[in-house]
């Protein structure tokens, strides 16, 4: 069997068996419903760009924003799969998906998709050590109890993403880690995190 066909078949097999790379993400509007997000192949990603680029939009800021939003929807439509069969897309097309999902669902899922496919690090990005030291100082000075709205949402996502993978997490204990990564109660999370970033 040619290599191209082997790769295609093995990818489909892994998806059908649930062994492919994916994130299972609950909808914000209805947390009991969970969808699977899978990385797109380059061809799928290019198709999503082509579908958005083919739109007839005004060459204004509003038109460009609309096209960018549609591009996000096309990417999500291709990336969202049935959790019990990753080879099956959840919707027939992006239009159907957009009539069902709320705006904050799409924002939430697209954030997760970007995290899923992001392959970056301070070393890859070329961040010098002194800038990382400054970042540590800034994080230590954040007034956690005063965060709200978008800032608090971003802080929870940040803590949930990094705390379980850091050496510091071992000293926090499993209950602290669970409270940081699975928290629904904003006040309880704020109590678990001091300005120095320790419990």
Structure description:
The model is unreliable at about 170-199 (pLDDT under 50). Strands 1-2-3-4 form a four-stranded antiparallel β-sheet. The longest helix is centred in the middle third of the chain and has 19 residues, at about 60-80. It has eleven helices and four strands; from the N terminus they run αββααββαααααααα. With about 200 residues, it is α+β, with helices and mostly antiparallel strands. It folds into two domains: about 5-115, rbstp2171 (2-Layer Sandwich), CATH 3.30.2220; about 130-190, no CATH class. α2 (about 40-55) packs antiparallel against α3, α3 crosses α4 (about 95-100) and α3 packs across α5.
For this structure, the quaternary state is single chain
Would you identify the CATH architecture of the largest domain? Answer: 2-Layer Sandwich
- The number of distinct β-strands equals 4
**What is the global morphology?**
globular
What percent of residues adopt helix (DSSP H or I)? Answer: 55-70%
**CATH C-level category of the largest domain:** Alpha Beta
Describe the largest sheet: 4 strands, antiparallel
The computed structural class is alpha+beta
Strand order of the largest sheet: 1-2-3-4
**Low-confidence stretches at least 5 residues in length (pLDDT < 50)?**
168-199
Q: What is the mean predicted local confidence, pLDDT?
A: 75
According to CATH, what is the topology of the largest domain?
rbstp2171
């Amino acid at each position: 069997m040619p290599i191209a066909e082997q790769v295609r078949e093995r990818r489909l097999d892994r998806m059908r068996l649930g062994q492919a790379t994916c994130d299972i993400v609950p909808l914000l509007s209805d947390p009991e419903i969970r969808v699977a997000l899978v990385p797109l192949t380059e061809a799928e990603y290019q198709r999503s760009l082509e579908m958005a680029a083919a739109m007839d939009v005004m060459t204004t800021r509003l038109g460009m924003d609309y096209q960018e939003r549609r591009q996000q929807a096309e990417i999500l439509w291709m990336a969202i799969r049935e959790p019990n069969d990753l080879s099956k897309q959840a919707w027939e097309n992006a239009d159907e998906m957009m009539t069902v999902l709320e705006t904050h669902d799409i924002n939430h899922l697209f954030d997760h998709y970007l995290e899923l496919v992001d392959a970056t690090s301070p070393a890859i990005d070329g961040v010098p050590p002194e800038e990382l030291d400054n970042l540590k100082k800034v994080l230590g000075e954040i007034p956690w109890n005063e965060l709200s709205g978008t800032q608090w949402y971003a802080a929870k996502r940040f803590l949930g993403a990094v705390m379980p993978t850091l050496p510091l997490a071992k000293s926090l204990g499993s209950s602290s880690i669970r409270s940081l990564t699975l928290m629904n109660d904003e006040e309880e999370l704020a109590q678990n995190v001091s300005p120095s970033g320790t419990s």
